[in-house]
């Protein structure tokens, strides 16, 4: 259960950790980059509101309420 017994790996206290396949490593790094780009983008957009520096309804453009 849980995989085969052959191949390379490191055993520590009865738990064998096998080396990940290349596509697992590349996919993990790619998804990590997407996550950080998203976090930094949202911090740029919502940072001042989250930190309490301005209200959400302030500073998002003029809607032309006057002449």
UniProtKB/TrEMBL annotation:
InterPro entries, A to Z: NDUFB2_plant/fungi (IPR044980)
Gene Ontology CC: mitochondrial inner membrane; respiratory chain complex I
PANTHER family named in the record: NADH DEHYDROGENASE [UBIQUINONE] 1 BETA SUBCOMPLEX SUBUNIT 2, NADH DEHYDROGENASE [UBIQUINONE] 1 BETA SUBCOMPLEX SUBUNIT 2-LIKE
Its protein name is NADH dehydrogenase [ubiquinone] 1 beta subcomplex subunit 2
